[in-house]
User: What shape does this take?
Amino acid sequence: MLVGGLAITAGWWGYGKRYGRERRYDALIREVSRQHGLPPALVKAVIWRESAFRVGARGGAGELGLMQVTEGAAQEWADARRDREFRFENILDARTNLHAGCFYLAKVTRRYLRTDHPYAYGLADYNAGRGNVLRWMQGPGLTNAAVFLGDVTYPGTREYVQSILGRAGRYEGEFR
Assistant: This one.
């Protein structure tokens, strides 16, 4: 009985630790995402997928932080702010990372406002780049996200978009 009790306690502790990590940035996510016109649940889902809520996460292609922001995207954000003092290492700060990541995600999503689900297209752009999205936007996929996702030739990108949209649905209640 003691062993089973320890296992249950350890399981709850692990859940609590993971749950705490997922909730740690909620206030900041709410604040910054709304400043950039994005749903907080969507931004939280991007963070879940990109870094598992690890502020110091580093990607294989040089992406950094919670939203795995690239140097180019970070520089676009800094240039838009006319911040001549910006250094890419600053992107490891949670607030800076969220601002740069949300700025970029909002920017790429605005490209697809004439579609039935701009976030699906914007997430594909965030993950695979505009050139690929334009290649996949053919025929009905030009405006229909379901068709578009079926035409995405990178299975990883298709799964990326679907997983974030699904997780965002789970997070929506946290930001009401």
Q: What stands out?
A: The domain at 2-55+104-175 is CATH 1.10.530.10 (Lysozyme). The CA atoms of residues 9 and 78 lie 46 Å apart.
